[in-house]
Every structure is written in C-alpha cells, then in structure tokens.
Amino acid sequence: MCASIIMTQSSSMKTEDSMWIHLPFIKIEPLPFDEAVLTRAYNWLVFSSKNAVRYFLPYLSQLHYQKVAVIGKKTQRFCEQQGIEVDFCPDDYSQEGFLEQFNVQNGVSIFIPSSKAARPILEDELKARGADVIKIDLYEPVAHQQNILDAIKRLQDQSADGIAFASSSSAENFFKALRRYQVQAAFDCYAIGQPTYDTIRKNGYDAVIAQKQTIDGLINTIKESRNLK
After folding, report:
1. Residue 1 has pLDDT above 50, yes or no
2. Distance (Å, whole) CA 154 – CA 131
3. With contact defined as beta carbons under 8 Å apart, do 28 and 141 qualify?
4. How far is residue 125's CA from residue 121's CA, in Å, rounded to a whole number?
5. φ and ψ at 176, to 5 degrees?
6. DSSP conformation letters of 54-104
7. Three-state DSSP class for 185?
C-alpha cells in the first residue's frame, strides 16, 4: 500500500480516499484598504480566485462596473452561485493565459481586488497595454504553521511520501520550515502550475506539474504519475 499525498490547498476536498491528507498550508487574513477606490466607475472587474470573490462580496454593491472577468472555471462557478454574471473566462487558468486572450483597449478602466501575495504580472501587463488599473490588496495569505509541522512529521514517519503544492506561497512557507528545523526527508513534489513549480525548483526540489491548473487536474496528474486509477 502506497503512502498518502498531502494536499495543501485552502479549499475543502471531497474524497473518501485515504491516500489524500488535506492540510492547508495557508490561512487567509482580510486586509483593510482605501474604500475611496469603490466610488469610481470601471469597465472591468477582474477576479483571479474564489477568495477574491469571497472577500470582495461585502463591497460589491458599492462598486460601479460594466463587466466581470475571472481566472478559472471554479472562480466563474463561484461568481455565478453568488449571482455575479461572468463575461470573460479564459481557457487557461493562469495570469499568462488570461493575458493571452483578454483584449485591452487603451484607457479602459480595470479594478482588481486580489491577494497581497499575487504575482504582479496581471496588473503590470494590463497597465503596459494602456489600461487604467486599480489593484487592491484585499487579503493576505499567511503560513498555517501547525499544518506545516504536521506535514513534516508525516513525512518523517513515512505516513506520507508526497506533497501537492497549490500555490507558490504554500511551497515557500513549507521549505522555509524544512530549513528552520533542519529536516531531511525524501518525498515527491507536485505543483499546480509553472510559478509553483519554479518555487519548488528554487528550493532545490523537482516536481511534477499538473496538466490542468486546477485541484482536480492536480489530483489526476498525481494518479497518472503513480499509475493509480
């Protein structure tokens, strides 16, 4: 019987399969922001994650916007569950994929409520294309130290032999803990996308990248890599 895989995403995981251990490596803390930005009118409201939608919902009625764009089908479904109509969702679930398919006209106004830890490529590239972009730090991911220590213990006692990283920040926080406690353990790494893979590589480990940048895609990739059905 193979050891378990530690899944690190913050979202819940519905499975009865004992091979998966759900230990979120990130906790979300809301941040204050200058609410004066809500008084403007915007052509586009852009959500890059379900958390962005969840934490912006209390402010949504105050914002004047024409269209909504999202990254990821799960973000789209979550928006629709909240009664938010989505006008644009790219096929690729990354900032790069969004930018490839999203047409920007010079002077268009875009509002992005997002994580403080979000990569700046979306904001920077949209501005470079001539858009008027307002991005706010709506929430901040912080390390869930207890779960990280639990994961390290499971790797040490070999009740788990793999970790699936759902974000770059979860990977960075984990490897910092490994160095802090001077732990050496052999385990497989899995990454939800290229940026997360790059963070894992930067810390001296290799990883298998999910063929599709979703949790389901990550699980399927793990199963395929381990010859599991």
Report:
1. no
2. 48
3. yes
4. 6
5. -60, -40
6. HHHHHHHTT-EEEEEEESSHHHHHHHHHTTPPP-B--SS-SHHHHHHH---
7. coil
Query: Angle 188-190-26 (CA atoms, 0-180°, nearest 5)?
Result: 110
Tokens matching residue 169: 């920040």
Mean pLDDT, the chain, whole residue set: 93
Instruction: Please state, as a whole number, how many other Cβ atoms lie within 10 Å of the Cβ of residue 146.
Output: 10
Cβ-Cβ contacts under 8 Å for 152 (sequence gap 6 or more): 177, 178, 181, 183, 185
Q: How long is the chain?
A: 229
User: What digits encode the pLDDT tens for the residues 89-111?
Assistant: 998 878 998 999 999 989 999 99
Q: Residues 122-177: pLDDT tens digits? A: 999 999 999 999 999 999 989 999 999 999 999 999 999 999 999 998 999 999 99
Other residues' Cβ atoms within 10 Å of the Cβ of residue 117: 15
Distance CA 126, CA 6 (A): 36
pLDDT in tens, 4-24: 999 999 888 776 677 899 999
